[in-house]
């Protein structure tokens, strides 16, 4: 399987092509909160929006569990924008 180069929170990462941002982040030892990956809660994948991340060049925040990695992606899991969005989602 082909590998891609990513930058996550300033850290250079090599990940397997075809995996999600969430998987790549977990493999790098970085934690992203999730709810929809907990089958006992009954959420559909991507529905909780708690795992959103900021990707340079993307017009909106992206659900890390639904977005595949691409070569050269620059990802932020803890930017002010991401933290604010997660807080809003959880408060709903």
Automatic annotation (TrEMBL):
Pfam families linked: Fer2_4 (PF13510)
Q: PROSITE patterns this protein is in? A: 2FE2S_FER_2
Task: Please report the stretch or stretches of sequence annotated as the 2Fe-2S ferredoxin-type domain.
Answer: 2-81
Q: Which InterPro entries match?
A: 2Fe-2S_ferredoxin-like_sf, 2Fe-2S_ferredoxin-type
Protein known as: 2Fe-2S ferredoxin-type domain-containing protein
Give a GO molecular function annotation for the protein: iron-sulfur cluster binding
CDD domains referenced in this protein's UniProt entry, alphabetically: fer2
């Amino acid at each position: 399987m082909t590998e891609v180069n990513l930058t996550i929170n300033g850290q250079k990462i090599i990940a397997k092509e075809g995996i999600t941002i969430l998987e790549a982040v977990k493999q790098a030892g970085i934690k992203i909160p999730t709810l929809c990956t907990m089958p006992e809660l009954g959420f559909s994948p991507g529905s909780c929006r708690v795992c959103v991340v900021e990707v340079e060049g993307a017009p909106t925040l992206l659900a890390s569990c639904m977005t595949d990695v691409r070569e050269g992606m620059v990802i932020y899991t803890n930017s002010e924008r991401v933290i604010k969005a997660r807080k809003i989602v959880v408060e709903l």
